[in-house]
Write a structure and sequence with these properties.
Rossmann fold; 47% helix; alpha/beta; 7 strands; 7-stranded mixed beta sheet
Length: 234
């Protein structure tokens, strides 16, 4: 799952397989804390100037809903390349009677929006799944207005002696087993820790975002260093 189109196709198939149990697995893996991380990302996104927000790789629309709760004046678009995930998201929006979020299928590397469409682009757990990370970040920059914000939430290794080893044991041994039972897909939850191990560090991602022309790039670690929240200005 390392070459461009083959990785994208494999990731798309994987999320399609686990769509029905994706939310449950997130809750089990994180003890429900993933909602708090999305709320923090949503608050960072609505610090952008007025205008619509894009939730890229929206999945089941949890982050899109968090943005709406953070700022009820915002229209939110959610894009994902798995129709099965979007179906789960639409059910969630219907249950919440949420009519100011629009979901659509799309490719994060080639988005169907004009340059400068959004006041903010936010994503949760997208970046390490991209077949081309610089291209994906550049596309996010392209569709964001000057002065707008890019916010990215991602899983990272904590890189703290002792704790990093415990986190690695949990992620590589326990998560795949739980994934096999809860999501009925060990393969997907074996890919997850491997994708985190192969991803850039928060400082490296900061440098890449700066090289692509983003300004005021900052990050903070959450969840004992296992989650990184990057923010930047276009």
């Amino acid at each position: 799952m390392t070459s461009g189109s083959s990785k994208a196709e494999a990731v798309q198939r994987m999320f399609t397989r686990i769509a029905g149990r994706y939310d449950l697995m997130n809750t089990v893996m994180t003890g429900g804390r993933h909602h708090a991380w999305r709320r923090i990302a949503a608050r960072a996104a609505v610090e952008a100037p007025p205008g619509p927000v894009l939730d890229l790789a929206t999945g089941t629309a949890d982050l899109a809903l968090a943005v709406r709760r953070a700022d009820a004046q915002r229209f939110v678009a959610g894009v994902d390349f798995s129709e099965a995930m979007l179906q789960q998201g639409r059910r969630k929006l219907d249950a919440a009677s949420e009519h100011h979020v629009a979901l659509a299928a799309g490719d994060a590397l080639s988005l169907p929006f004009r340059t400068g469409t959004f006041a903010a682009v936010v994503s949760a757990f997208l970046l390490r799944n991209l077949a081309d990370l610089p291209a994906g970040l550049d596309e996010m920059r392209r569709i964001t207005r000057p002065g707008g914000r890019i916010v990215a939430l991602e899983i990272v290794r904590p890189r703290l002696r002792g704790w990093d080893a415990i986190f690695g044991l949990y992620f590589h041994r326990i998560v795949p087993t739980v994934g096999a039972v809860v999501a009925r897909d060990r393969q997907a939850y074996t890919y997850l820790p491997r994708s985190v191990d192969g991803f850039v560090t928060p400082p490296q991602l900061t440098t890449l975002m700066q090289r692509l022309g983003l300004r005021d790039v900052r990050y903070r670690r959450l969840a004992l260093g296992t989650i990184a929240l990057h923010t930047a200005t276009v």
